[in-house]
Amino acid sequence: MFSHIRTAVFLALLVPLAAQAAPPVNLALGKHCEQSSRSQWSKPNDAQGAVDGVRNGGFGFHTNKEQSPWWQVDLGQRYHLTDLAIYNRLDCCAERAQHLTVLLSDDGAQWQEAYVHRGPVFGGKDGKELRVPLRRPGRFVRLQLADNQYFHLDEVEVFGLPESHDAENLALNKATSTSSRSQWSKQDDGHGAVDGVINGKFGFHTSQQADPWWQVDLGDAYDLSEIVAFNRLDCCAERAQHLVALLSTDGQAWEEVYAHQGGAFGGKDGNPLHIPLTGRARYVRLQLRDNQFFHLDEVQVFGERRRSAQWNQPPAQPAEMIPPSRPPEETPTTPAPVEPAVIPPAPRQVEVAPAPTGPVAISEADFAAILKAIKAAGSFSDNKLGALRTAASGRFFTADQVGRVVGMFTFSPDKIEVVKTLKSSMVDPQNGFKLLQRFTFSDDKKKVEAILHQ
User: Fold this and answer.
1) Residue extents of the structural domains in the chain
2) CA distances from 269 to 230, 409, 450 (A)
3) In angstroms, rounded to a whole number, what is the distance separating the alpha carbons of residues 311 and 26?
4) 110-118: which pairs have CB atoms within 8 A and are 24 or more residues apart?
5) End-to-end CA distance of the chain
6) In this structure, are residues 160 and 297 in contact, taking their beta carbons and an 8 Å threshold?
7) How far, in whole angstroms, is CA 74 from its chain's centroid?
8) Was domain 32-162 assigned CATH 2.60.120.260?
9) Which H or E run contains 73?
10) Is the Cα torsion angle 339, 342, 348, 354 positive or negative in sign?
11) Are 32-162 and 175-311 equal in CATH topology?
C-alpha cells in the first residue's frame, strides 16, 4: 500500500515539473575556442577558460597586448542566436573590455558585426554582466576589442535555438484572424500567413489603421519556444519594423512578450525575425505599434505538444481552410482606402483590473508620451532612466505598462532598475509576476521577484 502512495505522490510532483518551460541552454559551454594571442599569464588551453562554466571574477583567458585582440567560440553548428552573457574580470582591469565588439560568422572566415559596446565598464559575477541581444543566426561568435590592449574575460555564455526545429510548426493551417481587411485581401486573408507558402510576398494584408494585428489560434495551449516571422520582401518591408508579439490563453487577456526595436527584418532571404519564447499560450498575436498597413509573408510558431485539458475547447472563430494562394500584388504607389476594422482588437490590459477605489493607471495616450520621452533621451541607459523618473513622477501604471517600459531597455541591470523605479506605482501589484516574462535568465527573475515582494 505504501509503495502505491509513494508512486502517486511522485507522479503528482512530476506533472507540474514537466509543465515548466525548459531554461535556456548555454550553447558555448565546453565548445572549442580560439584567441588572437597568448600572454605570460595564459594557461595551456587558455581560450577554453571562458566556456568552462566557472564564474569566479578572475580571467578565463588572457591575450597579449596587441591591436584589436579577440576571442571566439565555435558552437559546432549554426544556431538562431538570441543572447550573449559576457562576464568581465573583476579582480583587476575591468575597464580594458569597455570598447568591445561582437561579430558572428557561419564559416569562421567571413564576419558580420552584430553589436558594439562603447558604454561604461560592465561587471560580471556581481550581477552586472553585459547582456547582448542578437536575434540572428550564426555558428561562430567572436568578441574583439577596438583598442591596443590586453583582452581578458571571466566567462562567456551564448544562448539560442537550433536552426532546424524538431518541433512541429504549430501554426500551420490553424485558424487565424486580422484586425481589418484591405483592397488586396482575399476571402480568408489571415490564413495566408500559415499556408506554408514562403515566397517573399504578402500572405495577409490589413488596411491602414492604428495598431493593426494578425493572430493565430493554435487550438490548444502549448509551451512555446519560438516565433519565426517572414517579412514581405517585394515591397514595404519597413512597415513591420515596430512589431510586438503577444500571447494569450483565452484570446481576451493578452501579455506582450516581445517588442522589435531594430530595423526592417527579412524573410525568405534567410533573415526572418526569430522571437524566442518561454511562455505557455494558445493564441499568438503579432501587432504593429504604428498607424500603418500590416502584412507579412508567413508566420511559424514552434513549441512542445504538451496539452492542457483546461484550455481544450473549440476555437471561437474557426477559419475556413483554403488552398495556398496569394492575391494580386499591391502597387505601392496606389493609395489604399482605409476600411474600418472588421474584427475589434482584443484589450491590451490583463484580466485583473485595479480596484476602482484605488489609484488610477495613466491613460494610454499619456503613457505613449512617456515612451516617446524615453526614446528621445537617446541610447544611453542613464539618460533614459532619468527621463523615465521625471516623466513617471506622481503617476500610476499597470503591470502591462511597466513591462512595456522594461522592453525599451537592453541590459538586465537597467531593466531591473525600471522595475525598482515603478514597482511602488503599480496599481495591480498582484499582476507583477507577469514582469518575469520580460527576463530570460533565472538570476534576473529572482532579483525581480525579490523586488516585487519587498
Assistant:
1) 32-162, 175-311, 364-452
2) 9, 29, 44
3) 32
4) 111/140, 111/142, 112/138, 114/138, 115/84
5) 45
6) no
7) 24
8) yes
9) strand 70-87
10) positive
11) yes
pLDDT at 358: 64
Higher pLDDT, 156 or 8: 156
* pLDDT tens string 166-205: 557 899 999 999 999 999 988 889 999 998 888 889 999 9
Structural contact between residues 373 and 384, judged by C-beta atoms closer than 8 angstroms: no
Instruction: Write the DSSP symbol of residue 46.
Output: G
Report the phi/psi class of residue 236: left, alpha or beta, with left for phi > 0 and alpha for psi in -120 to 50.
Answer: left
CATH homologous superfamily for the domain 175-311: Galactose-binding domain-like (2.60.120.260)
Are 349 and 398 spatial neighbours (Cβ–Cβ below 8 Å)? yes
With contact defined as beta carbons under 8 Å apart, do 211 and 345 qualify? yes
Count the neighbouring beta carbons within 10 Å of the beta carbon of residue 118: 10
DSSP 8-state symbol, 16 = H
Where is 422: in which H helix or E strand?
helix 412-422
Radius of gyration in angstroms for the set of CA atoms belonging to the chain, rounded to a whole number: 24
420 is written with which cell numbers?
Answer: 525598482
Q: DSSP 3-state assignment of 372?
A: helix
Confidence (pLDDT) at 346: 41
The pTM assigned to this predicted structure is 0.42
Alpha-carbon span 370 to 68, nearest angstrom: 40
Buried b / exposed e across 426-450, counting CB within 10 Å, b at 16+? bbbeebbebbbbbbbbeebbebbee
Burial class from Cβ neighbours inside 10 Å (0-12, 13-18, 19+) for residue 365 reads exposed
Quickly state the pLDDT bin for 322 (edges 50, 70, 90): very low
Is residue 267 pLDDT above 60, yes or no? Answer: yes
Q: Which amino acid is at 6?
A: R
